[in-house]
Write a structure and sequence with these properties.
- Keywords: Oxidoreductase.
- GO terms for molecular function: oxidoreductase activity, acting on NAD(P)H.
- Belongs to the zinc-containing alcohol dehydrogenase family.
- Pfam families: ADH_N.
- InterPro entries: ADH-like_N (IPR013154), ER (IPR020843), GroES-like_sf (IPR011032), NAD(P)-bd_dom_sf (IPR036291), Trans-enoyl_RdTase-like (IPR047122).
- This protein is α/β, with parallel strands linked by helices.
- It has 2 domains: 9-143 and 331-388, Medium-chain alcohol dehydrogenases, catalytic domain (Quinone Oxidoreductase, Chain A, domain 1), CATH 3.90.180.10; 147-285 and 287-322, Rossmann fold, CATH 3.40.50.
- It has 9 helices and 18 strands.
- It has helices spanning 48-56, 137-140, 144-157, 185-196, 211-217, 230-243, 265-275, 331-347, 364-376; strands at 9-15, 23-28, 36-46, 65-66, 70-79, 100-104, 118-122, 127-128, 177-180, 202-205, 221-223, 257-260, 281-285, 289-291, 300-301, 318-322, 355-358, 383-388.
- Strands 3, 5, 6, 7, 8, 17 and 18 form a 7-stranded mixed sheet that branches.
- Strand 1 and strand 2 form a beta hairpin.
- The radius of gyration is 21 Å and the shape is globular.
- The two termini are 25 Å apart.
- The structure holds NADP nicotinamide-adenine-dinucleotide phosphate (NAP).
- The site of NADP nicotinamide-adenine-dinucleotide phosphate (NAP) has 31 residues, from helix 1, helix 3, helix 4 and helix 7.
């Protein structure tokens, strides 16, 4: 391990106590243990989870709670066992100091949470930015959290196959997958993953202004959830498609797979409960939000995704709450998803980052607060909020 000078402490954004807004704390800089990297963070991004943590104290067992599920920056030092870094033909150099990297990490973990100037991260949570992509760390930081979410929801919750390396002959096929919230960050990555693995019958639900982009990324057809007749339009589309279908009637659910990328009781679960039918699987991004946070209003979450007030599923619908922080339970994804699969997909141009919307502010804390305020206002639309962490790096 090479030791490069790094400060003993550094600024980190934390929630200090229940119902208190984020503050800046001087946190310890941790020297890497075996198979960990110390990374100087240039960019992070804010996701709705930060708002759920901050305004709703969602699933926080102790304070101070270190915020941030993604980082992008430069490897300062690392301790890598020689056999540890999985090299492939697309990723043939082991991780090294100076590499530009990004990753999805667990917030609440003081070593790795993303809203701090230095993170110390196990190398299986690090992706190298491929040299050939036409974007930098600012855009790359939008990728890891919800690209990992897309893999986890499609495989662990819906049971769809995403074999890696993808065999040349593999085709996901024409089973329908409906993505409600296609323009959310989760939706944008899920649609792209399905396209890469050859799932050709993706239905996306999003505001009309995003439809062209969603079709380009892989959706076969789009519907606008802001249209009060959206459910009737989907039904009409299914009737028409299935009526003209060669090879006899559909067996089982007309839409066997759903991804609810939003998890809103009134905005998504209720409408989905009207179109899911016996045999449908519905992966719901947790938490289920009964009341969204707003200025001066704490959010309210459903305690159990299977029993949400006012949402009645038909018999035979399987509802699965998505918990991406558990993605490491799949040992293959634990080892390969961030170090190998994600960089390879980016290098091939199979995945485009979300549009990065830069949140300004004079200080680290101000940028964190400004991003939370934009999330309270539900301002992001087809984009990810990103902000600078350390000032002295590009
Ligand atoms: N449990 C987990 O593992 C997990 C993982 C990732 C995310 N999540 C959760 O999933 C949710 C989404 O996360 P995100 O990062 O993707 O959020 P995001 O990108 O910030 O979501 C913003 C988008 O939501 C869309 N939207 C809002 N209400 C909608 C509705 N009723 N129907 C369709 N689209 C709607 C908007 O679409 P338009 O622009 O089209 O209006 C907007 O583009 C958050 O609550 C997050 O915490 C959970």
């Amino acid at each position: 391990m090479t030791i490069v000078a790094s400060p003993k402490t550094h600024p980190s954004i934390v929630l200090p106590a229940p119902s208190s807004p984020p503050v800046l704390l001087q946190a310890a800089t941790h020297t890497p243990n075996p198979n960990e990297a110390l990374i100087k963070v240039t960019w992070t991004c804010s996701t709705p989870l930060d708002l759920h943590r901050s305004d709703g104290n969602l699933a926080i067992s102790s304070f101070p709670f270190h915020l941030g599920t993604a980082f992008a920056g430069t490897v300062i030092s690392l301790w890598l066992r020689p056999t540890r870094w999985p090299t492939t033909s697309l990723n043939d150099q082991p991780l090294k100091e100076g590499d530009k990297v990004f990753g999805f990490v667990s917030d609440g973990n003081e070593r790795e949470a993303g809203f701090q100037e230095y993170v110390t991260v196990p190398v299986h949570k690090v992706s190298k930015l491929p040299a050939n992509v036409p974007y930098g760390l600012k855009e790359a930081v939008t990728i890891p959290t919800n690209l990992v979410t897309a893999f986890h929801a499609l495989t662990a919750d819906l049971g769809l196959r995403l074999p890696w390396p993808k065999p040349k002959s593999f085709r996901g096929g024409d089973k329908r997958v409906l993505i409600w919230g296609g323009a959310s960050s989760v939706g944008l990555y899920t649609i792209q993953v399905l396209k890469y693995w050859g799932y050709t019958n993706v239905i996306a639900v999003a505001s009309g202004k995003h439809h062209e982009e969603l079709r380009r990324l892989g959706a076969r057809v789009c519907f606008d959830y802001r249209n009060s007749r959206v459910l009737e339009e989907i039904e009409r589309y299914l009737d028409k498609e299935d009526g003209s279908r060669q090879g006899g009637p559909i067996v089982g659910a007309r839409i066997p797979y759903f991804v609810d990328c939003i998890g809103s009781r009134d905005g998504t679960l209720r409408p989905l409960s009207e179109i899911a039918e016996r045999g449908s699987k519905v992966a719901v991004m947790l938490p289920v939000i009964n009341v969204h946070a707003a200025e001066g209003r704490r959010p309210v979450f459903a305690a159990d995704e299977h029993n949400v007030e006012g949402v009645v599923w038909r018999d035979g619908v399987e509802v699965k709450g998505v918990r991406t922080l558990n993605y490491e339970e799949n040992m293959f994804f634990r080892e390969k998803l961030q170090p190998v699969i994600i960089p390879a997909l980016l290098a091939q141009g199979a995945i485009q980052p979300n549009r990065a919307r830069v949140v300004e502010g004079a200080t680290l804390l101000e940028r964190a607060h400004n991003a939370l305020q934009l999330l309270r206002e539900q301002s992001p639309s087809g984009e990810r909020l990103v902000w600078r962490v350390s000032e002295d790096e590009r």
